[in-house]
Task: inverse folding
């Protein structure tokens, strides 16, 4: 594909878009992993939400 | 499932978890198809191959405004209906909107340099989009400054609705004032002025970027719900420690 005399501008524009999109995807995935890890740590220490406690109690009773 | 059930964050997590893989796949397919169309698009008779920048610049510019419109709808949800997911949706959308606005500005500058002879001019369209970018950064800063999510949500909702005034200014700036930027050529009275060989790749890329936004927005909303759960548990932990 011949991008002509302004190829550098076209490649820079598509490169910037690729970098920003990949950064957004990485941010969302890494943030999800971080929040799940902190939640697991807290729950492992016995700190759970009241709704979760109720659910566990109901399951144990049934 | 009734729509009102989505107000429950746990149900939202369950439904969005099932939806996300399909949305991600649809986004990937749309970008793949869009790339083929972009590669096959002809050179413009005046702009040559630089017209290919349009296929990423225009979708990002549309999304920059669309995301603020989504945040404005969420702001109404926060202030009027106190919907539990409304400020989650607004907070999750802000960094995505900022990124799309940043890309619209950068790709526009890279398109402007060879076509206009300059990266930047302080005209109405470019300046109003820069103001939009600064407002996104201001909103993100506000969310980070106020610790209580409910208080931050209300303040951010008011700022978002005030900032929505900028959307018609951006849209009609090319009609109201003299500007280097070209007037609307797709969404205009009388239909698009663009030939199908440019319009089809543009619409496919716009669909791909919109699907990307929907996918990332749902994922970021899930992360925000988890972050609020973490905050609640950490507060419970701190209270238990004080009690002991």
Result:
């Amino acid at each position: 594909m011949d991008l002509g005399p302004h190829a550098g501008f076209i490649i820079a524009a598509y490169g910037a878009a690729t970098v920003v999109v990949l950064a957004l995807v990485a941010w969302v995935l890494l943030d999800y992993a971080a929040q799940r890890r902190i939640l697991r740590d807290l729950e492992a220490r016995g700190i759970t939400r009241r709704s979760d406690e109720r659910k566990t109690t109901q399951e144990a009773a049934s | 499932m009734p729509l009102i059930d989505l107000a429950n964050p746990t149900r939202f997590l369950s439904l969005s978890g099932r939806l996300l893989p399909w949305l991600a796949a649809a986004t990937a397919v749309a970008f793949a198809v869009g790339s083929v169309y972009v590669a096959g698009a002809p050179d413009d008779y005046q702009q040559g191959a630089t017209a290919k920048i349009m296929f990423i610049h225009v979708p990002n510019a549309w999304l920059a405004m669309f995301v603020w419109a989504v945040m404005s709808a969420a702001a109404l949800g926060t202030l009027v209906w106190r919907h539990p997911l409304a400020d989650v949706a607004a907070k999750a959308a802000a960094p995505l909107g900022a990124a799309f606005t940043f890309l619209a500005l950068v790709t526009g500058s890279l398109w402007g340099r060879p076509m206009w002879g300059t990266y930047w001019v302080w005209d109405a369209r470019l300046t109003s989009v820069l103001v939009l970018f600064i407002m996104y950064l201001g909103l993100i800063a506000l969310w980070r400054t106020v610790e209580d999510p409910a208080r931050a949500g209300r303040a951010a909702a008011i700022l978002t609705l005030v900032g929505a005034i900028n959307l018609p200014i951006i849209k009609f700036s090319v009609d109201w004032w003299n500007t280097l930027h070209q007037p609307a050529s797709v969404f205009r009275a009388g239909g698009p002025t663009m030939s199908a060989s440019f319009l089809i790749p543009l619409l496919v890329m716009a669909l791909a970027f919109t699907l990307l936004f929907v996918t990332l927005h749902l994922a970021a909303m899930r992360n925000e719900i988890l972050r609020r759960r973490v905050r609640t548990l950490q507060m419970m932990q701190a209270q238990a420690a004080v009690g002991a």
